[in-house]
């Protein structure tokens, strides 16, 4: 394994075998500050650790330091956009929410995998944790969202993970879209919850309603307290 620097981002080079090309794994939380994220970043900050407050389980206690991104002491601020722009990608994302909180991870800043306190729900909907969110504004076509196939949510205040294989939309030489964006696979806490879900247009609260083949990762910060750690993107080429 080796490292090199692209701008202010550290890129980890991972070689799977002597016959495989090196893949660049982009680490989005590293060192102090928010160098991997676009300004303005609102109240987002780094912390050493977060935990649910004993007196109010809907809020975080924040321990100063590095390694965890948290959306500020108030638990509501701007959405956060990565400096790095991805297309087809494999992503590893770890997150924590306190009781009843809400966030989301938007691929290309447009297509959301929901983050929510859904612990213990027996019938998950598209708005529950791991759901692929619906579209809710013009233009057509509509997308009704897709609930996770199973509720894999842990209790609020516990760290959880998504592992996502995402395929960007395709366009011809004139800019006409020829294939929709697709979530090839979404794994929540080690359990596969989606396979081959096409998303015909950006989902609700996307940063942009147009579609492109590349864009930043977006973390939703305006719906309640949330923390993220160990965010890694590995660009891939999918057929």
Describe this structure in words.
This protein has 239 residues and is mostly beta strands. It has a single domain (2-11, 22-235), classed as Sandwich (Jelly Rolls). It is 0% helix and 44% strand. It is built from no helices and 16 strands. Strands 1, 2, 3, 4, 5, 7, 10, 13, 14 and 16 form a ten-stranded antiparallel β-sheet that branches. A four-stranded antiparallel β-sheet has the order 6-15-8-9, with no helix packed on it. Strands 11-12 form a two-stranded antiparallel sheet. A hairpin with a 2-residue loop joins strand 1 (2-6) and strand 2 (9-14). The chain starts with a strand and ends with a strand. The model is unreliable at 1-22 (pLDDT under 50).
Q: What descriptive keywords fit this protein?
A:
239 residues, mainly beta, Jelly Rolls, ten-stranded antiparallel β-sheet, four-stranded antiparallel β-sheet, 16 strands, 44% strand, globular, disordered N terminus
Strand and helix layout:
Blueprint: E1 2-6, E2 9-14, E3 23-27, E4 45-52, E5 60-70, E6 80-86, E7 89-96, E8 102-107, E9 111-116, E10 160-167, E11 170-171, E12 177-179, E13 181-188, E14 191-199, E15 215-219, E16 227-235
Antiparallel strand pairs: 1-2, 2-3, 3-16, 4-5, 5-16, 6-15, 7-10, 7-16, 8-9, 8-15, 10-13, 11-12, 13-14
In short:
The protein is mainly β and 239 residues long.
- The CATH class label is Mainly Beta
- Head-to-tail CA distance between termini: 26 Å
**How many separate helices?**
0
CA-based gyration radius:
17 Å
Question: Main β-sheet: number of strands, strand sense, barrel status?
Answer: 10 strands, antiparallel
CATH superfamily assignment? Answer: Exo-inulinase, domain 1
């Amino acid at each position: 394994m080796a490292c090199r620097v692209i701008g202010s981002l550290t890129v980890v080079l991972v070689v799977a075998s002597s016959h495989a090309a090196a893949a660049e794994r982009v680490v989005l939380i590293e060192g102090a500050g928010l160098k991997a994220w676009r300004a303005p970043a609102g109240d987002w900050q780094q912390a050493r650790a977060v935990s649910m407050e004993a007196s109010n389980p809907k809020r975080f206690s924040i321990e100063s330091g590095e390694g965890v991104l948290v959306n500020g002491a108030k638990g509501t601020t701007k959405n956060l956009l990565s400096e790095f722009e991805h297309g087809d990608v494999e992503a590893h994302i770890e997150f924590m929410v306190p009781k009843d909180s809400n966030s989301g991870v938007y691929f290309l800043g447009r297509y959301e995998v929901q983050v929510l306190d859904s612990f213990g729900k027996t019938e998950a909907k598209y708005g529950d944790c791991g759901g692929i969110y619906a579209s809710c504004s013009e233009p057509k076509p509509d997308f009704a969202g897709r609930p996770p196939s199973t509720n894999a949510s842990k209790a609020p205040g516990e760290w959880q993970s998504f592992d996502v294989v995402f395929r960007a939309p395709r366009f011809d030489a004139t800019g006409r879209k020829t294939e929709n964006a697709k979530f090839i696979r979404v794994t929540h806490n080690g359990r596969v919850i989606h396979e081959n879900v096409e998303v015909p247009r950006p989902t609700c609260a996307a940063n942009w309603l147009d579609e492109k083949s590349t864009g930043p990762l977006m973390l939703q910060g305006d719906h309640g307290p949330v923390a993220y750690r160990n965010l890694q993107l590995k660009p891939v080429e999918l057929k």
